[in-house]
Write a structure and sequence with these properties.
Length: 259
Amino acid sequence: MELKEFMDLSKLQKIQDDFSDATGLAAIAVGMDGKYLTEGSNFTDFCMKYTRGSQEGMRRCVKCDNECTGTYFCHAGLMDFSVDIMVNGEQVGSIIGGQVLPGPPDEDKFRQTAQELGVDPEQYIQALRKVPVSTEAKIRASADLLGVIVNQLVNLEYFKYSNADRLNGVQKGVEESNELIQTINDNTSYLKAIAKKQNILSLNASIEAARSGEAGAGFAVVAKNMQELSSQSGVIYNEIEKSVEKITERISSLVSLFD
């Protein structure tokens, strides 16, 4: 399983960039084939241009990349990290980075390293002075936090990917239910209109029965029953409307989850 099969890498890039801006640590995502999945964030010239830019420096860096895990000190004296990205117990990639000093550097020691790498010592030191400085505790905590955030994001994206058909089915069902609710609303409005007409007819019938005296007594009973039925129907339709309104709110809330 490859991370790029189900992951929107732009989301990963955004988290990575924000993390680097906030902490000063470099970061980049790597697939299981060793290829970069994102653009590097906050990479330093010290590491990329000078250390990895030399043959010996690259050899040492690759050795660290392959053998070191967690948060560690690289061969050049900077702190780096490597965080596994896991989905259901399977590794699908890594977030690597760091390129930060855990304290003020010993420039004489770095001049010696420059000579070992065949790099101009003064240029090396100038690049070194631009490397972010933090504490070991903050560096380790930052790397751990990035690992938690990235793994949560990746696992959420995998869940959405692996359950896409089910989610689409739920969404379709919710939308169809919403349409049925609208039909009920329309029919209820129509029935309420009929109930109002019944009420008007019953009132007119009552008036005519009163005018007819004893001859209209039976008609008056019918008119009264029509009026009571109309009132009861109106109450029922109002209750239906309230219930449908609540259901509609629930349906709308579910639909919004898929927007």
